[in-house]
Amino acid sequence: MKTISILGSTGSIGCSALEVIKLHPDKFDIFALSGYENIDLLFKQAMEFKPTYIVTKDEESQIKLSGLLKEKNQGTEVLFGPEGYKFIAGHVKVSTVLAAITGAAGLVSTMEAAVKGKRILLANKESMVMAGNLLSEVSAENNGIIIPVDSEHNAIFQVIHDQKNQNEINKLILTASGGPFWNSSLVELSNVSITDALKHPNWSMGRKVTIDSATMMNKGLEVIEAAYLFKIDYKKIEVLIHPQSIIHSLVEFIDGSSLTQLGTPDMKVPIAYALSFPERIASGVRGIDLSLSNDLQFELPDLEKFRCLKLAYDCLEQGGSYPIEINATNEIAVDAFLSKKIKFTQISELIETALNEAKSSNIESIEDILEVDKQARIKARLLLKGSKFA
Prior knowledge:
Blueprint: E1 2-7, H1 12-22, E2 28-34, H2 39-49, E3 53-56, H3 59-71, E4 77-80, H4 81-90, E5 96-99, H5 107-115, E6 119-122, H6 125-141, E7 145-148, H7 151-160, E8 169-176, H8 186-189, H9 194-197, H10 207-215, H11 217-229, E9 237-241, E10 247-253, E11 258-262, H12 268-276, H13 307-318, H14 322-338, H15 346-357, H16 366-384
């Protein structure tokens, strides 16, 4: 039986994982859950799964949640803050950590899981974007393993996890839904509302990830993640828009063969594979009826319209601290858009302006990463106050 800590159990990935785990009570034991602001849902999850620990964002929510659990005679211990997240990620009783905290906030706890040699189910792509080489090295040094949960990287992992010779891989092709605006013109994007941007045609995700999908920054971050995760030259990574989200990325080999993984656009499918690897278990999702899927479309992305994707490739080419810069600035830009401080098209403008002012630095430790992240956010906030974005 695998003993699991879920970092981000109240988010869409965490909730989907718990649905899969419920189907297999003989295979998985929930050791710890963690959330941020959704105390009510965290309480419900604690009552259903009875974890040993729960972690929430601060002392105030800890006191509230502890009181609710005490009323129900539930003995779960409630922790809070960064140290709490690290504690449940690295605990000796934990074999598997689902890292599903969105954004840079998930890096420290994910790194703790790597230090302790855990099986990391990585749904927090930002951790790999910010600390790809370091995270991979630390995990390998401690006999851990990183299994991607993102549908695209999970698909590639399913194809090449036992690939012995990287030279046989010609390229990786990451498919992208294109979000809600793949058919829109650049002019139309200037008037996009928050409501429009949050209407993803295929996937049910959190607000930040949904906006990233709309700008295609999500795919840009996935390109960076793939380069680090699979240790492959970024020039061998391509993006192809596939609006139906049935084919979840491809691997092209030097003999001309291309292998892929197909599946219904439901995150429970890659989550189930990550949970059970190298075996397979039921996900609760039905397979695809290909007789009804005869209209699959593919096209290359417009890098002028989806500027964020181009910027991500540029950051990989620059290397050094640039991936950290783009990730941090994007989080500030998306928050500014959701707070109605900037227009949709200004997300990429803010990121590009910040990157043009950035200078690469050597990254040797998690402290270096966090410092670059901190300074990039300060710079992005200062740019927001400038006349161009005010």
